[in-house]
């Protein structure tokens, strides 16, 4: 439920983005003024989080400690920077970790700021946003962007700053190096097997990206930048990475026979342990996607995070577009959704101070939940709140982090009938209470518009004291609306079971 306010027109502010990747942790600190971005500091540490992922999807204590120590150093650099100006995200490895909430609690404490886990396609969107801002414009030509991380590889086709196709593939420099070059030995057979394993992963989307009509390929991330540095310093390519230079690199590695004997200009000792896996991934992509030449971008996910923060501050929030798209796709009754949203926000504004919900992130989540609370009706009217919750938690929602999707799904799941306490208790501890409170406001708004009538309802006054709520309607209104009184009585019973008290008059 994190909302960032990067900058307002005419003001200069400092913002930071942290990328907890499977291979490296990166942090950039930037100064933003009128939408322009100036990087003022960068930090990077080769944490190799993916190395510590066990077969049962837990992090080894050694790697977890290494990650926490890195985040403590990042946190010291961030100093007193407010959390609304910091965005930290976890990617592939943290998407896989069992009981990730426990590690995240320690990680957030070390960093001093919230950390969100993002889905693969959301990672792809943010990567493209960073890359497209960093490269010189080429009109409206389509471009293919590829980012090879430690545990996943993102492929995106887009024009300008908008994506057209996005995919996250479960292969990366760490995972392929672990599965095919763990002992450091490199030979033709192993390289072919590694490339074949990558080809199997690429195959379902091969035609999707090969035939997308892009005119240039752009690579980002440490792996691709490391390969570019080697092929240019070795003299195999004058600029970027060509198919021919990549083949020469591949041949030189096989001739070396092992990582210990591998001597390449521009290749650091730090990068060497995962370099063979990265080369295998890129070689497979060149071959199966049909790439002959690749430019290399210095911008990637963390720059995309910064630009996303800037966009949110300028009312260009990708989440708003996603909510509108979902409403249209699932034929949500827009008029009913607007009535519920208006009433929910009116109730919210009456509890801002006692419930300490001054940050606009709360009103945004309540608004989106109101707009989407009936999204499950497209599946079935029976228990549609469960269908809607499933769709919101498991769909690819551009702009939303995984935690935000879980919060949104919980609110939609709990907007009617019995209050599903266990669903809320499964959320990260720090958002359980506020999500329950927002859901109560949504429930009351839905109840007041149960008749679906366009006739305006009277403005109800809401007073709260902790978890006790008192609703007051205009004199005589409830007496003339016995059905609403009955429904409020039933609602009071539902809320009591969830720890809330509701009285009305």
Could you explain how this protein is built, in words?
With 505 residues, the chain is an alpha/beta fold. The protein folds into three domains: 12-119 and 304-309, ATPase, nucleotide binding domain (Nucleotidyltransferase, domain 5); 136-298, Exopolyphosphatase. Domain 2 (Nucleotidyltransferase, domain 5), CATH 3.30.420.150; 317-455, Orthogonal Bundle (Hypothetical protein af1432), CATH 1.10.3210.10. It is 47% helix and 16% strand. It has helices at 61-78, 92-96, 100-111, 120-134, 173-180, 188-202, 206-210, 222-233, 243-256, 275-289, 301-313, 318-329, 334-351, 360-372, 384-394, 402-413, 421-425, 429-448, 482-497; strands at 12-20, 25-33, 36-45, 86-90, 115-117, 143-148, 153-159, 162-169, 216-220, 241-242, 293-296, 461-465, 468-472, 501-504. A six-stranded mixed sheet has the order 8-7-6-9-11-10, with helices on both faces. Strands 3-2-1-4-5 form a five-stranded mixed sheet, with helices on both faces. The longest helix has 20 residues, at 429-448. It starts with 11 loop residues before the first strand and ends with a strand. Mean pLDDT is 89; it is low at 2-10.
Summarize it:
One of its GO terms (biological process) is polyphosphate catabolic process. The chain is an alpha/beta fold.
